[in-house]
Design goal:
Layout (H helix, E strand, L loop, with lengths): L4 H31 L5 H30 L14 H25 L5 H23 L2
Helix pairs in contact: 1-2, 1-3, 2-3, 3-4
């Protein structure tokens, strides 16, 4: 069954919206870490996860925006479904890895406070990642 351009357009619109919110959240974490006095190895890992998440979500935004533009009525070029493959694939991969990076960042943050809080945030992060992937797989 061929997926319609209308469906791809709506999916792209929603994914751009979600990626924008999650990327913005990641950038907020980066900004807070930059102005904080924390200079531990763990805070550097959190900065890496946040930067990776923000960058991946940014790429996802641009990839899905391309899909959105190509599937909108009035696009100046003739488009066939295979023309969307690169942008869709790039958008999906960067969105998924951005989500993993975001969850890694969230899971790591508790370790700054204590071992107990670190364990809790790691468990919550792992459960969140599992539930997110289960939700995406069953859509």
């Amino acid at each position: 069954m061929e997926i319609t351009f209308e469906y791809w357009n709506k999916l792209a619109t929603q994914t751009v919206f979600i990626s924008s919110l999650l990327g913005g959240f990641s950038i907020l974490v980066i900004a807070n870490l930059l102005i904080s006095d924390l200079n531990t190895r763990l805070s550097k890992y959190i900065m890496v996860f946040a930067t990776l998440a923000a960058s991946l979500f940014l790429v996802s935004i641009f990839a899905w925006t391309s899909v959105m533009m190509m599937t909108t009525d009035g696009y100046p070029k003739k488009i066939v479904s295979s023309d969307l493959t690169f942008h869709r694939t790039l958008g999906v991969i960067t969105f998924l890895f951005g989500t993993v990076s975001l969850i890694a960042m969230i899971s790591s943050v508790g370790w700054i406070k204590s071992k107990k809080m670190g364990r809790i945030t790691t468990i919550v992060g792992a459960l969140s990642l599992i539930l997110i992937f289960l939700t995406m797989a069953n859509s």
